[in-house]
Amino acid sequence: MGDVSQLATGLRRGTLEFCVLAMVEFEDRYGNEIVRRLGEEPNLAAGEGTIYPLLSRLRRSGWLESKWVESPSGPPRRYYGLTMAGRSALEHFRSEWVSFRQTVDRLVGTGEAA
Amino acid sequence: MKTNQTDVVAEYLREVDQRLAGLPVLQRRELLADLAAHIATERDERNLASEGEVIEVLERLGTPEAIAAAAHEEAGTQPRRPEAFYAPPSQPGGPYAPPSEPAGFYPPTAQSAGVYPPPVPPARPRSTNWALIGLVAGGAIVVLFVLCGFFALARGGESAPEPAVDVYPPAPTATADLVDPPTPTVTG
């Protein structure tokens, strides 16, 4: 049990942030949208609340930008969008990920051809 | 009913906040604001009326421990370990500010020491343990050096005839006794 969750944590580390970046690639989204969407994936997030520290780091490292927007009906929402640096980081990840995944698939025997 | 919901949320946020000691103060406030906004938005968009529904939102957010752990990991800070290693055993009660670090990196250290004393006591047994282990290890090393020095002196000084005589006194006599008798029998 502990080993399984540790494996999930290890796989999540380094990949989850690019799932976040991809979510705001074409349009800005507010925190609840991002967090809710990732929370729907059972093996991605340990809890919805753990995404907010990640959003904070991505903003501080300059890959995301955020702005609080007043909502006509409810409380203000914090919208996140991709910066130029975030966009190129996402592109870089995409090319790295494809070759990385192919290597692992080949070595571990998880590829479709294997 | 509304006050009950606010109580639950306020307590939840306080629980999270208590576990964020060690995090830079602005990140700490940012996270609490994000969580508060998340809960308020969920409540508004889903028209949550009952306390049970609000608790469900909190459960989906995760335990305060899990959120604080994620925050410390993302910020590169560690909730308890640094205090265990930094706190010198000679001044366990006093707030400790690492002199080499920039002041801005650990803004809440002085605050957290004042507001949250619990993290300090667990640091004491650990550090004393380390001090004990260090003492024992150091003592063992000193004893080893002394022994090595003693043997080196003994060997270098007299090429170790004395210890041999001291340690195995019967051996030479025994062999002498064994060797001696045959010679008389051969000659006689």
Automatic annotation (TrEMBL), chain A:
Coiled coil: none annotated. InterPro entries: Metal_resp_DNA-bind_regulator, Tscrpt_reg_PadR_N, WH-like_DNA-bd_sf, WH_DNA-bd_sf. Residues 20-91 form the Transcription regulator PadR N-terminal domain. It comes from the Bacteria. SUPFAM superfamilies: Winged helix' DNA-binding domain. PANTHER family: PADR-FAMILY TRANSCRIPTIONAL REGULATOR, TRANSCRIPTIONAL REGULATOR RV3488. This is PadR family transcriptional regulator, regulatory protein PadR. It comes from Paractinoplanes atraurantiacus. The lineage of its organism: Bacteria, Bacillati, Actinomycetota, Actinomycetes, Micromonosporales.
Automatic annotation (TrEMBL), chain B:
The chain crosses the membrane at residues 130-153. Residues 89-101 have a biased composition (Pro residues). Residues 72-83 have a biased composition (Basic and acidic residues). Pfam families: HAAS (PF22564). Residues 72-110 are annotated as: Disordered. The keyword Membrane applies. Keywords: Membrane, Transmembrane, Transmembrane helix. This is Uncharacterized protein. It comes from Paractinoplanes atraurantiacus.
